Amino acid sequence: MFMRDAVSILNLTKILDGRPILNDVSFALRTGTITALLGPNGAGKTTLLGCLLGLLAPDAGDMTLLGEPTERLSPATRSRIGFVPQSLTGLGWFHVQELLTYVASYRDRPEDREDPVWMQWAALAPQARIRSLSGGERQRLAIVLAMRFSPDLIFLDEPIASLDPQARYDFMRLLPGYVRRRNATVLISSHILSDLEAFCDRYLILDRGTLLMDVEAEALGTRYRRLPAHAAAASGGREVIAAADGSVWIDGHAGDTEAEPSLPASIEHLFLALTR
Ligand SMILES: Nc1ncnc2c1ncn2[C@@H]1O[C@H](COP(=O)(O)OP(=O)(O)OP(=O)(O)O)[C@@H](O)[C@H]1O
């Protein structure tokens, strides 16, 4: 782990009902970066976030958040971490403003000022009962709860799926702007790969509990290229994966030739090739 890493995970293993859900997962997140955590349904993304946040006890592995071991996070460090769960359940009897006040009372950093931008974005009525909120409104509230005190480290588990197009569009502009200003660190899980492409620095692809690939966004199309199968062998690069669509991913970009230009190399193409 480097000092500039906001998160480090070393050899994380989690077993549930006798089945390994996470197998020896290791990675670190550099401070000030946005990383996407990708994987098919059941890959282990939520389990990984649960272990990182101390909601689940790992069977093996060491994890640190903002320089502290996850099992001994100080209250002040906890207050610097925001978490948007896949769904906000329970708490139905609270009004929106009541819940915001209640959750804030558990914080250990009274000096932090509330950033009004998230409540403005969410456009929720303060007196609305939580149980009367729609799925998308609950998602907005979860984002407000996680973001309003300007966290330095943010975990988001599928935060945008139920947002309407306008809210999603605005959120996808607000989040990266916030991260760059604050030098915050984000790990975001989502199935909407085209949305993530606009702002992620890096992608982690998890499948059946194993980290299949850890790739910088800028390496797609530079270090890694996608070629038609017949051109791949002659490319001089190392084959990473042969996709079911007949294309082959090569590590080692020798530059496009007019005769054999690279095929489009998006994270969606790579994800589909790896997890088929
Ligand atoms: N409490 C539990 N007991 C046993 N198995 C569990 C438990 N919770 C989750 N699992 C299993 O762990 C695996 C990973 O689940 P997880 O929720 O982490 O996946 P995910 O990648 O977040 O999926 P999705 O994209 O559908 O949200 C799944 O096969 C799931 O059935």
From TrEMBL:
GO MF: ATP binding; ATP hydrolysis activity
Q: Can you tell me where the transmembrane regions are?
A: none
Q: Does the keyword Cell inner membrane apply?
A: no
Q: Which UniProt keywords apply?
A: ATP-binding, Nucleotide-binding, Transport
Question: Carries keyword Nucleotide-binding?
Answer: yes
ABC transporter domain segment(s): 7-233
Pfam families in the cross-refs = ABC_tran
Q: What name does this protein carry? A: ABC transporter
